[in-house]
Design a protein that fits this description.
about 100 residues, mainly alpha, about 70% helix, elongated
């Protein structure tokens, strides 16, 4: 791994820690200044809306709450959010460096 790849890996790892910390997941060695947004913050309202829609859709379509396709859809959306958040963090870091 060259210097650029190592730096990119560190930025990606940091972005993932920030994402997980913001979403209320346990993070060893928290990132200063990042708060859990999953309950009281802006993300809490989003989580409430997503899970309410998920529940109502399940009732309307008579889906089992453990339906594998629905669970895979939710997992795919969570992965999409993680990857887009990491990419935004990487772009932000690059932009900040270019502005120096």
């Amino acid at each position: 791994m060259d210097g650029g790849e190592m730096r990119d890996a560190k930025v990606r790892a940091c972005a993932k820690r920030v994402h997980n910390q913001m979403h209320g997941f346990y993070v060893a060695g928290t990132v200063p200044g990042v708060r859990d947004e999953s309950e009281e913050g802006v993300l809490g309202r989003c989580y409430d809306e997503v899970y309410d829609l998920f529940r109502r859709l399940g009732l309307r379509c008579a889906l089992d709450p453990e339906d594998q396709d629905v669970l895979k859809l939710m997992d795919a959306l969570e992965h999409l959010l993680l990857e887009s958040g990491i990419r935004m963090f990487e772009y932000g870091m690059k932009y900040a460096q270019e502005q120096k």
